[in-house]
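Much of the work behind modern protein science is quiet bookkeeping, done one molecule at a time. The protein below has been through that process, and both of its lines are reproduced in full.
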Amino acid sequence: MATVLVLLTAALWAQPFTARYLMAFHTCEGQACRDPQNHTVRLAESEDAVEWKPFAGGFRGSVPDVIVRGATLYVFTPGRVTRYRHFGQRWEEAAPVAVRDAEGRVTPFVDPSPVLDDHGRLALFYLVGNTDPAAGDPAGCRSYPCTKYFGSAVEVAGSDGREFVQMPGWRAEVVLQRGTIADPDIFFDGSRWVLYLSAGANTWAYVGDTLHGAYRPALGLPDGVLTTAGGVPSGHFEEETGRYWTFLHSLRQGVSVIFRAEHERLEPVPPSAFRPVIEMGATSVESPGFARNGFRVSLSAASLLDRLAPGGLAAVLVDGALKNVTRVRLRDASGLEFFVPVEEADESRLTYPLPEELEPGRIAVSLEDDAGRVLAAHKATIRRGAPAIYTKSRDGQGLAEGLLVRVRGEEASYEPLDEIRFGEEGEKLYVTLAVTGTHKVSLAHLHAGGRILPAEYVDGGQVNVLLSSDLAGAGKLDVWLEADGEVSNIVQLVFAE
């Protein structure tokens, strides 16, 4: 669990990441597994979370966890984050990660587990590390009993996963009488937050009502023990089936293997319920970190109607049996019901508006006829932000639609959004983009030429961004909007000399 240097190997520098799920883990050989300096972080992908395809290559690191936000994949290891940019399919060198308290003092931490909060910010859960290097493994005690603390921290705006501020209090406090406790993993199960902990070769499950509140052993678990099948767990709640997936590693014929179990509730899961999903012969495979692959979201023009956000449009694929659908009933996560008309329909597709009042989260959708008969039903997820940028071609591709605003002192002038030319020193130049799917967005950034520019104003129809003068002469650039962790379609802006 010591902080280790991260060195990317060439084979990992270009990956498409096309499957539905991702997993980070580390590998090691024999007795060398005892030293984290000998661990190698690897990645794998899967369509069903059962059959996994590991990628070639890796980098030095230990106990990794992975998350996708917008167009970036983050792999966190103790004290480090390694980022992959989907647009350009490139890895960046590892960067240090710091957690500080409210007074700016550095908080030592190990075993980071990332999650996105309701505002699209990264939050880290971790075991508090030792301030004294001579104290040994932070998961154990120099003398028993002792208390181990698990905390959480929120990303500093603009730091892109490198800086975090510790939240007040502790998420969990565990009094150790013997052994170790470490490796937190955080996820949401649709109604509450779940925090897995690794107590040696056992996995514990704690629950909390709020992300940064206090966590307690799940009801029905003696002392919080979910399973004795193995440790260093990762959890996931699959909304489509309403079932939990638990991944962990354990020994099989003297070599560590990653196992998976699927279960309906947070109740004791017997070791017999676990099946191996990743094994590599004589190489140990340890410390799974699970994530959905957010890159699977299509960024093509055809997908603009499929971006579900309050105030936007939804599209449903239908067949001839549903030609009589005239209205849609929506029930949101708060229990409120809305009836909306079908706006457009043909033999294969219908669209309907999403009320601005919808609460983000899971919604129940019923397609009904004039008499109120339900012809089909399904569930969908409403996101706080699902941004899309309008374009001059009206197909979601090519040059962005909007205005340029030049500000000189207290005067402002407006120009068509054609070629962008910067003016004299002291002038501010803003781009106003015509957008949709941002009615409830609280935080947005424009990505342009490797720069991340914060939006100074955002509502359901426009985003205003102050342009950086060092973009002058950059030519035609691919740009996209990131809003509360969701990314828009890719469009172009042209920067003249």
Summary: The chain has a mean pLDDT of 86. The CA atoms of residues 325 and 369 lie 5 Å apart. The chain has three domains: 10-296, 301-382, 388-495.
